[in-house]
Amino acid sequence: MLTGSVVFGDVVQISHVGGDVTVGLDRPPYRVIPVDSAPLSLSVSQARAQPSRLLLARHQVVPFTGRADTLNALAAWISGPEPVAALLVHGAGGQGKTRLAAEVAGRCSRAGWAVWKVSHTPTPMAGPAPLSRMELPGAAVLAIVDYADRWPASALLALLTHLQDLNTRANSQIRVLMLARSAGYWWPALADRADSDLGVDTNQLTLPPLAIDSDDDRTGLFTTAAAHFAAAMNVEDVGWPVPNLTGAGFTQVLAVHMAALATVDATRHRQEPPVRSDAISAYLLRREQTYWRELHTGTEALVQTPPEVMHRAVFTATLTGAQPRSDARQALTQAGFPASAEAADRIIDDHTVCYPPTGMSTVFEPLHPDRLGEDLLALSTPGHSHRGISNLERDWAPAAITGLLTPEGPQPPVWTPAAVTILVETAHRWPHISTSLLYPIIRRNPALAIAAGGTTLTRLAELPDVDQSALEAVEALLPHERHIDFDTAAAAITAVLTTRRLASITVPSARASLQLALGRRLAHAGDHEGALTADRAAVDVYRGLATTDPAAFEPNLARALTSYGNDLWKLGHQQEALAATREACEMHRRMAIANPTGHLPALPASLTNLGAMLSGLGLQREALAATEEAVAIHRELTQADPVTYLPALATSLDNLGVDLARSGEQEAALAAAEEAVEIYRRLAEAHPATHRPDLARSLSNLGMWRSSLGHREEALAATQEAVAMEQDLAIANPAAWLPSLAMSLTNLAADLSDMGRYEQALTVAEDSCATYRRLAAGRPSVYLRELSAALNNLGMTLAQLGRREEALAATEEAVAIRRDLAAANPTARLPDLAVSLSNLGIFLFRVGRREEALAATEEAVAIRRDLAAANPTAWLPDLTQSLTNLGGDLADLGRYDDALAISAEAARNSRRLADADPTAYLPDLALGMCAYARVRVAAGAELAEALPAIEEAVDIYEELFDQIPEAFSVALVGAYRTWIAVLEGLNRTEEAADIRRQLDEAGEAQE
Questions:
Q1: Residue 4's pLDDT is what?
Q2: Which of 770, 832, 839 is nearest to 800 (CA)?
Q3: 3-state SS, residue 118
Q4: 954 inside domain
Q5: Where is 143: in which H helix or E strand?
Q6: In-domain check, residue 297
Q7: What are 634-669's pLDDT values in tens digits?
């Protein structure tokens, strides 16, 4: 057993699970290591030989100073009350983000926090996890995520999900400090998902340039840094001349430090110190050249590679980033080096002497810090037009970049993401990189930019005067539908292109089309307000055009209204959303009647949207009618073109099952769900990436409808399969799949409880509640209803385990939530309130609060009478259950006449339901008969009528007990005791004694 630890990697615990279990060993897309805040020592000889080392944060040559306001803001964030919080600190490269994080890490470590560094791993690494156990010395964790803007959104959300789970399970306070250069489209979209779907508090902090932060004086920073650099190189302090640091090139801490280092080193070599920022970079890069030459020509000749060749190797490694040796060899070949493996290995080994790798399994450590590496690429590449800089430009540089980004097979080279990312970052300061290399490469092969990932594409779109044709080449390859790792990039690129296109396009219909496309992209990225603005503009234009030419523009208007309605719905404007969607649906219907071939396919999708909104507003009859029509149309379309329309038919069938179940047509709901699952299973076998998520949702629904009809074993099997799939999906994309997984966990807990497996059900129910509580904290309007359902389920499970006070507390919370929801929307939410009130009455009764129990049960009965009067098929079962409970409460309070009348009504209803569907309602019939007999015993009424009722109940319970003993043992014992009481009341004492003896023997045997 592990205690005080967090386990990352291939460690699996399985308990309290019955049936088949699928275990996924997918590694998380990140690596976690403990942060060692102690500085890495550096000798005088090392510092003199390679001055750039003094700039690396890990050596901490210059103590951290200034940034008092920023540190105070970070301290307030760290000490805040939120259990889990993420903060983005962003600023330009060289702004001091890494040093700031190191300072915060040291303070947290000294305060007893566990401090971790989390790095993205684009591909799973072979062998055991790099670190499988993280010790937790305290109750708080600081996780530092560098280059957060280069992570895929799905990987960041997976990390936040796992840390959220750590907080839930270990009660550890979690702080996630993300560092990035930008906070563009990627951050608002990620923050929206983290807040709304995970309940993680998010915020951002701009690391201001030096001129803005009053505590950071450039001259003071320069002199302090120069003194420490001089000490590290054992150079006498001669009073270093301070260059003019007021220009834009010195707004970053690193730029000032580079100036100080160049000044100290140049003075040591009796040279004139450089003063311009570009000249300072060039000077430090020439010192790297000197370092390579001295290693090559020195008395020990530590490297065989000549300096010019080493220049090309460092240039190549800075582009590719750290790579396994085999990939480094290939990179050298594509960059124009000799093809022999022996020659490549010699260069790689010599490069490793110059730049030791930080990982055990990689070589080609790039030149650090990042700014210096970017300057190496820019100053080595002709075309920068910075005068006075010599001895760095190389005619081989463009060919090396182009060669590295020329695929030799169907897939881009493995280093493509790193190379394209650093070129994009370099282009933000060196425009010639973009115009002469980056844009032509992307125009020629936009798949390379796609391979770099969504965050790099977002940074590409943020380049000043970004090339339109390059963006358009990328745009053509972006996924048309939602994609978590490309949604923000697609929104950023589409926004730039739309702005430019609108500036040159005057045709109204073309402008509206652009707005509609932008709205879709913004909605996918989570910018619902932006999407609403764009879609409203499209609606306004198309409405005006459709007035004069309806045949040409009504289809566009209907499409725009559909998107506009979805935007309104997501932002909580439900009535406006319904109105827009109704209008769209009516247009689609008119057009389909006039031209079925051209317009019929659009109608069922519009009907599906309408049905979902009507159902959400509690207008169930209208919702069912819309969904049934959508299914009928999709059936017709599928017969003519199954490849195109079979997925849409399955979706419509799934929605139909939901609406049928809500309308009380359980058998029909089950049939629709089974057909949907059958279709999705076939589709998922052929295209698992596309349709496995649909299959999981459909299986979850199938489990619910099977359970409602008493098919317990089959229900459990379907729900377990859904949970297994959704757990895998939630690991890869937690924001999208945690809500579905939580719902399936709620269903699984209910299924396990129905099978009498209460301990297993409790574990699952608690997980479901914890997940929904996090989700509801971020987006209460969406997830409070689901949280109340999970709490309701948790209360029932706790009650089955005899934990009455806990069951009551969970149910009281569910009632409170549902009462508020019903007040806002009684049509849709009163049925939920009645469910929880019914349970509340039972649990209050069990803890002796009889008057309160009666009030809750009477309220549940009143609600359900109204519902059953309007739709007996849907609501008679629930009314019967509440009537049964009410009869018992009334009898217990001595109101026997009322109790007899109510229990007789409940028994009649139970009989009616069981006659219509024995499989589903025999347990309810047994419960109703048993309750009726108990009330007659309590009332001292004529018991001759009670005897056949209790005997029937015993017979039913015995049959059910034989099938599922765990679920019906308690009910059977209760029926036996009621039977004994009835027999004794009829003076049939010998029969009563015989049954009591059998009951006692059964109890002893069980013990």
A1: 39
A2: 839
A3: strand
A4: yes
A5: strand 140-145
A6: no
A7: 999 999 999 889 999 998 999 899 888 877 788 899
Domain range for 105: 5-34+66-206
Buried/exposed 457-474: b ≥16 CB within 10 Å, e otherwise: bbbbbbbeebbeebbebb
Domain contains 211? no
Q: Are residues 155 and 248 in the same domain?
A: no
pLDDT of residue 120 exceeding 90, the answer is no
Contact residues for 866 (Cβ-Cβ < 8 A; gap 6+): none
Q: Which of 206, 231, 260 is the last residue of a domain?
A: 206
Instruction: Give the total number of structural domains in the chain.
Output: 4
Which helix (H) or strand (E) segment holds residue 142: the answer is strand 140-145
Co-location of 133 and 14 in the same domain? yes
Q: What is the pLDDT of residues 77-94, one digit of tens each?
A: 999 888 899 999 988 777
For residue 150, pLDDT over 70 is answered with yes
Give the phi and the psi of residue 301 in degrees, each rounded to 5: 45, 65
Residue 273: CB partners within 8 Å, gap ≥ 6? 241, 243, 262, 263, 266, 267
E strand map for 805-908? none
Is pLDDT of 389 > 70?
no
Q: Distance between CA atoms of 999 and 994, rounded to whole angstroms? A: 9
Looking only at the bridges linking them, the beta strands covering 133-135 and 5-7 are antiparallel
Round to whole Å and give the CA distance between 25 and 189.
29
Token reading at 71: 């540190």
Tokens read off for 832: 């939920």
Taking only the tens place, the pLDDT of each residue in 697-755 is 899 889 988 988 888 889 899 999 988 888 877 766 666 677 788 888 888 988 888 88
Most confident among 177-186, 774-783, 858-867 (mean pLDDT):
858-867
DSSP summary character for residue 374 = H
Contact status, residue 171 vs residue 179, Cβ threshold 8 Å: no
Task: Give dist(CA 544, CA 559) in Å, integer.
Answer: 15
| pLDDT of res. 632 | 95
How far is CA 70 from its chain centroid? 29
Q: Which of 235, 269, 288 is the last residue of a domain?
A: 288
Residue 912 lies in a domain: yes
Q: Considering only residues 195 and 174, tell me which one the structure prediction assigns the higher pLDDT.
A: 174
Asked if 931 and 888 count as a contact pair (C-beta separation under 8 A), the reply is yes
Q: Is the pLDDT of residue 387 over 60?
A: yes
**CA 131 to the chain's CA centroid:** 24
Q: Say if residue 922 is in the same domain as residue 1000.
A: yes
129 and 170 co-located in one domain: yes
Q: Are residues 192 and 232 in the same domain?
A: no
Nearest Cα residue to 9 out of 96, 125, 117, 132:
132
Produce one character per residue of 417-440: b if its CB has 16 or more CB atoms within 10 Å, e if not. Answer: bbbbbbbbbbbbbbbbbbebbbbb
Q: What is the helix (H) or strand (E) element at residue 526, kind and residue range?
A: none
| Run of H or E residues at 593 | helix 574-594
For residue 542, give the nearest of 522, 523, 565, 561 by alpha carbon: 561
> Per residue, what are the HEC states of 240-280?
CCCCCCCCHHHCCHHHHHHHHHHHHHHHHCCCCCCCCHHHH
Please check whether residues 976 and 906 belong to one and the same domain.
yes
Per DSSP (E only), the strands in 813-969 are: none
